[in-house]
Amino acid sequence: PVHRTTEVQDARLRLPILAEEQQVMETINENPIVIVAGETGSGKTTQLPQFLYEAGYAQHKMIGVTEPRRVAAIAMSKRVAHEMNLPESEVSYLIRFEGNVTPATRIKFMTDGVLLKEIETDFLLSKYSVIILDEAHERSVYTDILVGLLSRIVPLRHKRGQPLKLIIMSATLRVSDFTENTRLFKIPPPLLKVEARQFPVTIHFQKRTPDDYVAEAYRKTLKIHNKLPEGGILIFVTGQQEVNQLVRKLRRTFPYQPPTKDVAKNGKESEDKKEETKEDADSTVEDPKELEFDMKRVIRNIRKSKKKFLAQIALPKINLDDYKLPGDDTEADMHEQPDEDEDQEGLEEENDDELGLEGESGMESGKRQPLWVLPLYSLLSSEKQNRIFQPVPDGCRLCVVSTNVAETSLTIPHIKYVVDCGRQKTRLYDKLTGVSAFVVTYTSKASADQRAGRAGRISAGHCYRLYSSAVYNDCFEDFSQPDIQKKPVEDLMLQMRCMGIDRVVHFPFPSPPDQVQLQAAERRLIVLGALEAANTEKTDLPPAVTRLGQVISRFPVAPRFGKMLALSHQQDLLPYTVCLVAALSVQEVLIETGVQRDEDVAPGANKFHRKRQSWAASGNYQLLGDPMVLLRAVGAAEYAGSQGRLSEFCATNGLRQKAMSEVRKLRVQLTNEINLNVSDVELGVDPELKPPTDAQARFLRQILLAGMGDRVARKVPLADIADKEERRRLKYAYHCADMEEPAFLHVSSVLRQKTPEWVIYQEAYELQNGDSTKMFIRGITAIE
Ligand code: ADP
Ligand code: MG
């Protein structure tokens, strides 16, 4: 039995799904596969696992819940543990870099990628009695694959007399891809709709659609706060930088003064508040012991599993002087570009009916009520994310500035006003080259309606759309396209092939990816050496996975990085490659040096930039160029961490601390994996990674080239260009393979002054600059 506090119980009783517990459970008991669709906030994620637990589904096996977002996996496991009054050792989470799962875990929240990896080693998911695929409407690649796999696993488990339940949960969007796809489910699964009390939300469009939606959001929020009655404000912008920018601006305009000590009787409370008013410096506490602890566990694990591990793979001996041109994509996400600096406008008056609220009595304007402004985005630490659920200080109005995390994954309480910029940041890929660009695009109509819906949870609400109805009608798609149809699929292709799915082309995807994309992925995997070159005798068979391919797929990184690791089995290179790959796989390790366009900013203008130059400049360091900056940064940060000075070190060197701890975790994880899978090495994670010798640096460069050989660029020859202007314009221009337009060496590159003739780059991306776009390359290594 579960013992909940009365407070929790009261909150639960207000959730729409609670009224339907019996019907939900009956349907689940009677059907192997059920789809549950319901408004965001109706209680699906927090309550369904509890229903299942109380119905006995966790008695012998686990209840598994997948989330596409790490944020949600952590937040929801904590919430459910709290509601059920169970320790985190029983209601736990597991995400790519961390988790608190124990042998006692009964309910396990995890990212969809984690469950996919588990299927590789336990195809029937024998540890689980139920799998809930949450947020299926998000259509993340992994969730889509899981739906396809589970559509086959469920009948198999049934045949073996150990039935597995599958619950697909979604917001009220386009469930037809799951219910009406007969290749996926021959018998359409029953659809349960959770009716939520949704109060009416009045939608206000703007007459015009301003480009500077951040400034517009600020202006609108001022108006709402000054003129409209009680009720939280939720603002949607597109990215972390925009969130922070807007949060700063709003906090400055409506400062919150914590009560002084003699006013606040409770000393602890005032402590918290003091902390609160600090700017958003990341306050994650780093424990230097953590690494040591991790290493002990790693070594223990290795000892244990070495005994068990039957099919150990010896790394193929590949001649570094004779490799083919590889290809595929990188997992390292592009840095978010810094925003324009804040402008000062925003306070000018406009007529009142802009808010569309005739008849509603407003607040007295002029009386400055403090605004309790909180940021929300995925990379925010989980303690900070959790603040959206904590009580707002007396006399304040809640205002959350969020990316689309708040659209469906996290329900923020007490929201009455939504300000929607109508855009989102999407990563677009070129299907053939794998080149990606982060672009801000309009959301879909479905997303816009979800966002508006956030205002109608407690009472009638208002949604202010910072765009015109004409734009909504003409430029917004009905639904956004599933990720699987947008992304390059090499790693999935390889992963699926290693799982024994030979004909990926025939896989029952909810929405199949483009054939062109699948064929391109196969080609690149062949070039990379992960798949056999086509077998001419048995052309009906898909190319087999090579030994190299198997090794690559064991590394939890993009295949090109996997290959780099696989090639490092000589000259004691592995510790360096591990470090490099870990750093390249994590987003935003280096804080942008504040220059995003191509203007010639004096390289010394920025202190971080200068420091980075010096890191890459001396001795053999220049052999590696920009990646050496990462390598040295990680090495030095690790060392500083072992001395308990990580925060300070990150702050003075322009490194993102959260990213550094992810790099460290990934290093440990990769090291563990290598020790497991490779028979004759036992690596450690050395906090004092010595600089590579000249010979090692040369090998490292070759390894980089082996992984990135499709990302070679050649400097545009300037000598033939007569026009002086044109020569100036093309000073940093490079021709890249597969691209017509030249790309420009990013200002952050330490090789900008040298502009070597041939280079390899870690990523190419496009930036919008008004109407035109411009290609950039970064992460540069020179080839000699
Ligand atoms: P759904 O999955 O249907 O969108 P959830 O189960 O996520 O709904 O949320 C149900 C309710 O639980 C929401 O009102 C939400 O605000 C609340 N909730 C979720 N997490 C927390 C938390 N950490 N603290 C307080 N309330 C929470
Ligand atoms: Mg949910």
UniProtKB/TrEMBL annotation:
It catalyses: ATP + H2O = ADP + phosphate + H(+). GO terms for biological process: maturation of SSU-rRNA from tricistronic rRNA transcript (SSU-rRNA, 5.8S rRNA, LSU-rRNA). GO terms for cellular component: nucleolus. This is RNA helicase. GO terms for molecular function: ATP binding; ATP hydrolysis activity; RNA binding; RNA helicase activity. It comes from Drosophila yakuba. Residues 25-191 form the Helicase ATP-binding domain. Residues 254-288, 321-365 are annotated as: Disordered. Keywords: ATP-binding, Helicase, Hydrolase, Nucleotide-binding. Its EC number is 3.6.4.13. Residues 294-500 form the Helicase C-terminal domain. Residues 262-288, 321-337 have a biased composition (Basic and acidic residues). Transmembrane segments: none annotated. It is an enzyme of class 3 (hydrolase). Belongs to the DEAD box helicase family. DEAH subfamily. Residues 338-357 have a biased composition (Acidic residues).
